[in-house]
């Protein structure tokens, strides 16, 4: 073992043995990483106690993949512990019998295309989007430099820190010591990250708790098509929740469970249709060649579950552009989102901007609560947050979130 490798090993031993007081951070609660800009991530990995990650890395093609990116392209390695790999069924025997290509996929998902410093995360407040090196070649996203073009889809990790705890996609992911190396960041984590396989629509359909939500929105889409006979279109429920022409939009939604509808007095979808029937239903007047009516009562009832975006004001050029709303549960707080603009003022600059319409809080159990501003209706509780999909998180809520002044 050469002198540099011995020094790296001593670095890990020192980190493990130091008292908490010896690493008192400059900003309260923020972990101070070990820093040695003379060593590489490969050297840090080699000296680390993470046997199974090391074995997977050596069997994979990761060294050549990283070399092709060049020495001036730093990365962050999110390194599951041996216990995490074992709990996931990835024993040494399994790793040694897994193809290098499959290991590449696993490790690329755990590798971010930039060096991430815990202190930088703490100073931002909101999640930082870590773009992994794993690409899905079947999906495109809106172009970063040109919104009229598309970019390849790379899986994302939304990362932040809370005290000494790393958060990934809203979930606690461990508080092990971080090492800053010459070509990036070595960040141990306590579980194996799972890449999302489903769109939001697929996740909602497969979950089993959101049947009434899916059925009423699908039914009103069908009613609209029958009433308008193709003369007037509307944004259908799957838009943004599924992949359209291989194109995907990052977002989050507050999905009401069937129990949320039951709690509000709607036991069946027929009960929801009765709510729609209390007002004249929209139709197309072929004599005047005009649309009569803008939508259904259930559209208004459920618009806030998608950040209030079902109804958008327009000018002659159309509605304003949407700003990102892919927020994981640790982002759902008033400090971050109060006053956040969900839309732009459009091409003409005259369309009223939509701002986040919610007050966020936490209940005694620490669950995030969501209340529509100025609404007399009780706050909804996120009973399961951060259900990860290809688009972003689904937050399951236990109450409906009607706009203010909406009665049912």
UniProtKB/TrEMBL annotation:
Positions of the FAS1 domain: 37-193
Alphabetical list of InterPro entries matching this protein: Adhesion/Biosynth-related, FAS1_dom_sf, FAS1_domain
Pfam families: Fasciclin
Domain of life, source organism: Bacteria
The protein's name in its UniProt record: Fasciclin domain-containing protein
